[in-house]
């Protein structure tokens, strides 16, 4: 029997990788996409199948985690074997600008989906994966962070995801659902959203090297993140769902890197050797060869409360699931810069298009980014 999977957030980075992974495993994949005034399916164009395709395996449905009626109808029509809840307003800085919406989509949205499964009597037959996050650890309580480390959320996003984490545990315990939380540390790829820091950096390195951008503006260069590759993390999601018993697992690489070092590596990929000068808000980075300032720190990108250090311990996932990461952060930076260079060389970019790629957090300064 062909297994059916429902993926919310299928148009996002992880949704695209997961859909591809499940199609390769022979699943019938149903993805929920939001209505948008412009195309939002770019990441899944390569796996999308037209509804007229004979023997179709990939289906897209309009939907939204803020609409219970929609979720109930989709679940009752599809009756999936596995549900992967990846949909979220996933930008931490933007969650300070849109806290209520973030709570609604990321927190209550999770409840809506779980409750829709229960209403339809799917709680004993359909397995559920919740996209939980290392942001739950927030203010450092323990290093490295593992499944038993206490949570201390530091943003509206993390607080919403805290609710989603616990409601998933509660539905597992209350109704015997096969519901698991993947506590995933940062994972990136060439499909990463353009306003997350790694992609913002790799795009800038590519654009600056091609003469399409003058400068990169960033916030906290001292933040440390445990960065892995998204393709490997979606495999871990699937592995959790295949276990006999549901449980919660950390996926991480066990290595942490400062934003500043990721910048150095990304620019080295395009042959630019950077030197950092100054401190805090006055820090800049100059091209050692030309003396030109290519990076400035901009206060607009600092968050009201920051998560300074994330470093995960993936021992449980390795021992129980057999999950392992393969790509180092340096290789990740290489792959992302190479992909951005290719993209920009193929598509002649209007200069303003690049300058306007900005982080939503700058909105508070009247500088509305993407
Ligand atoms: P993205 O931001 O790339 O994708 C988010 C997806 O959710 C998009 O498809 C988006 O649609 C969709 N979405 C947003 N709001 C709603 C809504 N109200 N209803 C339905 N769909 C919605 O995130 P990632 O792929 O990087 O992350 C996937 C999940 O994993 C998220 O829940 C994120 O919070 C979580 N996570 C991510 C980590 C990471 O490092 N990437 C680490 C830990 C957790 P659209 O394309 O239309 O915007
Ligand atoms: P994060 O990712 O907040 O960890 O959430 P992001 O890439 O946005 O930030 C990482 C760190 O870099 C610092 N930073 C900047 N960040 C952005 N976006 N833009 C900047 O200009 C900039 N300058 C410095 C940030 O302050 C932060 O410390 C991601 C998301 O995918 C979440 O959905 C997910 O849950 C977590 O990872 C794990």
Automatic annotation (TrEMBL):
Example GO molecular function: NADP+ binding
Q: Top-level EC class, please?
A: lyase
Give the EC number.
4.2.1.47
Q: Which cofactor does it need?
A: NADP(+)
Residues that hold NADP(+) according to the record: 128
Q: Which GO terms describe its biological process?
A: 'de novo' GDP-L-fucose biosynthetic process
Give start and end of each NAD(P)-binding domain: 6-336
Catalytic activity field: GDP-alpha-D-mannose = GDP-4-dehydro-alpha-D-rhamnose + H2O
Keywords noted in UniProt: Lyase, NADP, Nodulation
Q: Which Gene3D superfamilies match?
A: NAD(P)-binding Rossmann-like Domain, UDP-galactose 4-epimerase, domain 1
Domain of life, per lineage:
Bacteria
Q: Which family does it belong to?
A: Belongs to the NAD(P)-dependent epimerase/dehydratase family. GDP-mannose 4,6-dehydratase subfamily.
Main role? Catalyzes the conversion of GDP-D-mannose to GDP-4-dehydro-6-deoxy-D-mannose.
Q: NCBIfam families given for it? A: gmd
Protein name, UniProt field: GDP-mannose 4,6-dehydratase
Name the species this protein comes from: Aurantiacibacter rhizosphaerae
Taxonomy, top ranks, is: Bacteria, Pseudomonadati, Pseudomonadota, Alphaproteobacteria, Sphingomonadales
Q: Which gene encodes it?
A: gmd
């Amino acid at each position: 029997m062909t297994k059916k999977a429902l993926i919310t957030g299928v148009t996002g980075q992880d949704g695209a990788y997961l859909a591809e992974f499940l199609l390769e495993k022979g699943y019938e994949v149903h993805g929920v996409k939001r209505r948008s005034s412009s195309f939002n399916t770019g990441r899944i164009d390569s796996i999308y199948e037209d509804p007229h395709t004979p023997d179709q395996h990939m289906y897209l449905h309009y939907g939204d985690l803020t609409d219970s009626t929609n979720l109930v109808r989709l679940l009752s029509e599809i009756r999936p074997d596995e549900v992967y809840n990846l949909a979220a307003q996933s930008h931490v800085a933007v969650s300070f600008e849109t806290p209520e919406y973030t709570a609604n989509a990321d927190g209550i949205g999770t409840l809506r989906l779980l409750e829709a499964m229960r209403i339809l009597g799917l709680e004993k037959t359909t397995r559920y994966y919740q996209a939980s996050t290392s942001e739950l650890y927030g203010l450092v309580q323990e290093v490295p962070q593992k499944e038993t480390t206490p949570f201390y959320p530091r943003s509206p996003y993390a607080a919403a995801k805290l609710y989603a984490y616990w409601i998933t545990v509660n539905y597992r315990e209350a109704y015997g659902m096969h519901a698991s939380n993947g506590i995933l540390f940062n994972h990136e790829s060439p499909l990463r959203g353009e306003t997350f820091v790694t992609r913002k950096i790799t795009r800038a390195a590519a654009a600056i090297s091609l003469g399409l951008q003058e400068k990169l503006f960033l916030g906290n260069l001292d933040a440390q993140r445990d960065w892995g590759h998204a393709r490997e993390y979606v495999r871990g999601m699937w592995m959790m769902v295949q276990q006999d018993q549901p449980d919660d697992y950390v996926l991480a690489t066990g290595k942490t890197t400062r934003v500043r070092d990721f910048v150095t590596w990304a620019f080295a990929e395009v042959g630019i050797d950077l030197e950092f000068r100054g401190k805090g808000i006055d820090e800049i980075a100059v091209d050692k060869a030309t003396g030109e300032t290519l990076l400035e720190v901009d206060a607009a990108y600092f968050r009201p409360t920051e998560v300074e250090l994330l470093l995960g311990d993936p021992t449980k996932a390795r021992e129980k699931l057999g999950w392992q990461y393969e790509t180092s952060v340096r290789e990740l930076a290489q792959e992302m810069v190479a992909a951005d260079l290719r993209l920009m060389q193929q598509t002649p970019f209007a200069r303003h298009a690049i300058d306007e790629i900005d982080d939503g957090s700058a909105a508070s300064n009247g500088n509305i980014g993407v």
